[in-house]
Design goal:
The chain is α/β, with parallel strands linked by helices. Helix content is 28%, strand content 22%. It is built from 17 helices and 26 strands.
Amino acid sequence: MIDESMDTEQMKQPVKPDEFRAKPAWQRFLVMIAGMVMNVILAVAIYIGICYTWGDTYLSNEDVKWGYNFNEAGHLLGFHDGDRLVSIDGEEADDINKVVNSLIITESDRSVVVERNGRQVELILPLDELISMRQQKGYENFLLPRIPFLIDSVVNPTVAQLRKGDEIVAIDNCGEWNTFAEEIIARESGSVPAVAAGPLPAAKPQRVRDIRESEHVRLDLGNAEVNRVLGGGMVPGSLVLVGGEPGIGKSTLSLQIALAANGLKTLYVSGEESAEQIKMRAARIGIGNDECLIYPETLLENIVAQIAEHRPDLVVIDSIQTIYTDLVESSAGSVSQIRECAATLLKYAKGSGTSIFIIGHITKDGAIAGPKILEHIVDVVLQFEGDSNNIYRILRGIKNRFGATFEIGVFEMLDAGLRGVDNPSEILLTHYEEPLSGIAVGASADGVRPYLIEVQALVSGAAYGTPQRSTTGYDARRMNMLLAVLEKRVGMKMFTKDVFLNFAGGFKVADPGLDLAVVAAVISSYYDRPIGEGICCAGEVGLSGEVRPAPRTEQRISEAARLGFRRIVVSGYLPKGAKRPKGIEVVAINTEQRSSSALRYSNQRR
């Protein structure tokens, strides 16, 4: 027997005492057996490690003694809650995950045998119904194992007559599975229950004509722009939600409303700042309402108790994501906490007539953080928009049960807070010493408020194979559509040009009535010809190159005349009875091809 070496010369030498071949045969046999055993143990350890790391963990069908609960798709296929799976197409059902996969991935009907009430029942599952279930994602939570209710602990065994480990099989012989409802008892924190305001008044069905209309006087919040967006002020007993980017000015706006000299008793609740920090901001903004109370708190029960005690006219909460209630076992800002807190505030507002103004955070996608039901619960949803690098902000209505949603409020961020801008055109227009190419003025309208805004376009040769398209404050897809219209209807070779579009003031606009201004700015930059001085545009451009009337064209024309513009280009399809104020020439065009003469492009390059 050769040891560690295959050297035949060594094997010819005499046996040495320390060599393996010098040992007795029984010792050599034991050493070989020990090596084999160690190899087997090592192989088993490696196999266990592989299974633990990459193996599958599943619930065996044999361990499910109480059957399964099926979703709606399972009930439509003929399954009943409590059925135990026996086999599928004659093969024993063991892994639950494989059972669902076998029903989804199939090209023929399936035969499923289940155990129901102690006897076996065969179900034939048609292929078309299985395909329909797969398309509608009915396989999600298709079946869930039934788990028995076991008593873990008993507070008072003498009264309850229950013991640890008892299994609850029925209550009052209800005969239904999964009918338990969870009821959470509030912790003993010394707080007042969330229903401190009491239940809503009992209501009875009434005929519409018998319902009496109450004369509600809207609350003047001391801010003309906010009042405009709300439809003339805040309705008593309403719940208003304001959302916006971090640092956009939501807290500043809400504190200004609370501190406004409007004669209202207000309660400012902050879950993000201390009373001293709020006082520092209030001193900078200016205190105009001595009846404003500051209350830094995050527990909803305490907030409701203070509202019930002081009975303010207006409550400001900053923010809903920092408020929590003892009735829900989750952290502040979670979906359940936001839903419960908003519902409680709504109930109090409707029952007491107190108006509540709440601040909400937003996600990275721009939507208000929390459940979508938050926007459904509140009466008004406002969006505070703007660029943090710009000083101008827009308050836009998204939902309003008591007014229109097309109004906007314009603000300017200053050292002393937000200042309302009565005339937005003054911040959206730039006065140049001489006309420049690529600049056009469009007459826009948000709600009943018209304003003029400057459109800037830059068209240059594409340095690379694919031209660039970049917009700031405008829908890039709509700009691409307008460029396609220019290329198809006007003959401009836009496929070789980079196009950049910008709206002055950092505003985001979605008004189709600015199409004509965008097209005019692009044409001006393309040919490097400035537009005539004192000319603005208002019109929507269609895919065939036609110019359609913009909404509220008359208000746009009046705003242009008020600001001293001498000519405005509008759609030729504008009704003939439309008002045309004095001092401004109204030029009507039907197609984009006729815009050159109407806009009076200069022959001098700029």
